Amino acid sequence: MLRKISFPFVFALAIFACSSSTVNKEVHFQSKWEPLTVGNHSYLPILVRGTPNDSAFFILDALNAFEQKHPDFQVTGWKVEKDQYGYDNPPYIYGLWIDHKPK
After folding, report:
1. What is the residue-level pLDDT of the chain in tens, covering all 103 positions?
2. Buried residues in 51-81 as b, exposed as e (16+ CB within 10 A)
3. pTM, whole model, 2 decimals?
4. Quick one: which H or E segment has residue 66?
5. What is the model's pLDDT at position 85?
6. Which of 15, 20, 62, 94, by CA, is between 20 and 30 Å from 54?
7. Is the backbone of residue 13 left (phi > 0), alpha (psi -120 to 50) or beta?
């Protein structure tokens, strides 16, 4: 009896483990808007629904796209502009504040 129950459980667990952590998730960020840059600071609008931890690949890909598009900047820091959960509003990520300096 235990063998009949444990086999489907182990099989499902093995498939979940293989599919969630070993898949290379490629996300290629494309924004409709150009970053606004003043001095050593830029704002990159990304406008995505969700929390930063749910959108980690998207945020990191947006930073990577910014660095590739601006090879003359060295990113020194960044911060996510977001709204948290509210009474009647879902979490939302508006954009990224990026600090940089010339290379």
Report:
1. 545 555 555 444 444 444 444 434 454 666 677 899 999 999 999 888 889 998 899 899 999 999 999 999 999 999 999 988 777 888 999 999 999 999 8
2. beeebeebbebbbebbeeebeebeeeebeee
3. 0.67
4. helix 56-69
5. 77
6. 15
7. alpha
Sign of CA dihedral 72, 80, 53, 55: negative
Give the number of residues written for the chain: 103
For the record, the structure tokens of 42 come out as: 């830029």
Closest CA to 33 of 67, 64, 62: 62
SS3 label, residue 38: strand
The confidence score (pLDDT) of residue 84 equals 81
Cβ-contact 95, 43 below 8 angstroms: yes
Q: Give the integer Cα–Cα distance in Å for 84 and 97.
A: 17
Closest CA to 98 of 51, 71, 62, 72: 62
d(CA 16, CA 58): 22
